Amino acid sequence: xxxxxxxxxxxxxxxxxxxxxxxxxxxxxxxxxxxxxxxxxxxxxxxxxxxxxxxxxxxxxxxxxxxxxxxxxxxxxxxxxxxxxxxxxxxxxxxxxxxxxxxxxxxxxxxxxxxxxxxxxx
Length: 122
Description:
The protein has one domain (about 1-120): 3-Layer(aba) Sandwich (Rossmann fold). It has a three-stranded parallel sheet. It starts with a helix and ends with a helix. It contains five helices and three strands, in the order ααβαβαβα. It has helices spanning about 1-10, 35-45, 60-70, 85-90, 105-120, and strands at about 55, 70-75, 100-105.
């Protein structure tokens, strides 16, 4: 309910139609990095967790949730961290195994990835 109000407040509600479902932290028992919110989102769309569902996030907990839940993890690097820092926060070792499937640095990179996937699917 709070999030829906916030979405309506952004650019006079023009973003609201971009979302087919909305699940917030208080909509599930467990919060990220547990994948409950992602699993609930998929369920509301009539889907099971799958790698063809992308979860775009900008934090380590977002990527952990996506990988534990069985989704493709897209890290949005809006802070423009360099590659060394990305390797630091996502080491991919035994203790911290979760790494994003892909890193995008801005919306144009994300959109190019979407278009490339659509072309490859045809």
